[in-house]
Amino acid sequence: MEIIIPKIQLPEYPCHGSKWFDVRECVDARTWRILGVKAMWMVDPKSVRNADLVREKTGAPTTINNWHFAKPGQTVYDSSGFRPIWDETGGLLSQHRRGCADDLKVRGMQPPQVLQIIMANLDEFLDAGLTTIEQVEYTRSWLHLDCRPKIDGLHPAHGILFVNP
């Protein structure tokens, strides 16, 4: 019996040392065209580490942006990581504008399932810098994670702050 090992596409330009995420997946196409690999400056390493943890803990392909590898007919994402000033998606003061937020799409899983995995491994995610998650009832096809700075009295002493978008 022949064992077939699926080919895993490794990132050409690993973002902050990620095993899974290319810097192009963390930024939009225009930012990439302007900065190239230096676009990594726009992305908080903690957000990449949390995306890596989601990929590792779920064992499933996870997407931030796919503008550089989407196939014809596939939904194209280009505003799910860092959002530059010319991007009209979301709020003007969104954590995406700071490069510390990602909207993750995990193949074969719904956001509540991904959230359960995060909560089961909470200490690892906290150690990686996760501080905030958008309520899953507002994010039906993605899970918003961010690593905004914690504020005493607003964020829980140990745990995640859940916010509305």
Q: What is the number of helical segments per DSSP (H or I, 4+ residues)?
A: 5
Helix/strand class: alpha+beta
Mean pLDDT across every amino acid position: 94
Tell me how many strands there are.
5
Shape, principal axes of CA atoms: globular
Biggest pleated sheet: 5 strands, mixed
Low-confidence stretches are none
Nearest-angstrom radius of gyration? 16 Å
- Which percent range fits the helix content? 10-25%
Strands of the biggest beta sheet: in what spatial order? Answer: 1-2-4-3-5
Strand percentage lies at 5-15%
Q: Order of helices and strands, N to C?
A: HHHEEHHEEE
The rounded distance between the terminal residues' Cα atoms is 51 Å
Structure description:
- Strand 3 and strand 4 (143-146) form a beta hairpin.
- Strands 1-2-4-3-5 form a five-stranded mixed beta sheet, covered by helices on one side.
- It is of the alpha+beta class and 165 residues long.
- It has helices at residues 23-26, 29-35, 45-58, 111-120, 122-127; strands at 62-63, 101-106, 132-134, 143-146, 161-163.
- The mean pLDDT is 94.
Question: How would you concisely characterize the structure shown here?
Answer:
The protein is α+β, with helices and mostly antiparallel strands and 165 residues long. Helices cover 25% and strands 11% of the residues.
What is the secondary structure topology, with strand pairs?
Layout: H1 23-26, H2 29-35, H3 45-58, E1 62-63, E2 101-106, H4 111-120, H5 122-127, E3 132-134, E4 143-146, E5 161-163
Parallel strand pairs: 3-5
Antiparallel strand pairs: 1-2, 2-4, 3-4
